[in-house]
Amino acid sequence: MNDRKPLDLRAFLCIALLCSLWGGQQVLFKLSIQDIHPNMQIALRSGIGCVLLAAFMWHKGVSLAPWHGPWQAGTLVGVILVNLAPQHRRLNGA
Fold first, then answer.
1. How crowded is the C-beta side of 46, counted as CA atoms within 13 Å?
2. Do 10 and 53 sit in the same domain of this protein?
3. Is the pLDDT of residue 45 over 80?
4. What SS3 state is found at 54?
5. Are residues 47 and 80 in the same domain?
6. What span, in angstroms and rounded, lies between the C-alpha atoms of 19 and 4?
7. What is the pTM of this model?
8. Nearest C-alpha neighbor of 45 from the set 63, 24, 61
9. What is the mean pLDDT of residues 7-24?
10. What is the reported pLDDT for 32?
11. For 3, which DSSP code?
């Protein structure tokens, strides 16, 4: 019943790299908080992630049009969240 295979070196290195990237990002965020505004850090992180995701999708041949393919659900969620954000700030007194 247990079909789990042992973790090979490649999988271990991928997990270690991913954890290092995620953990390192938090450390860099704390170190640069005095020099770079947190909103700019978030914008840079999101922008870099978007460019990397778009490059990966382009390499795989997936459509990058927001109204076509796998982007439809994400576009809908993005539109809803953008429209809810001002209401959330107003309700919380921000």
1. 6
2. yes
3. yes
4. helix
5. no
6. 22
7. 0.55
8. 24
9. 89
10. 85
11. -
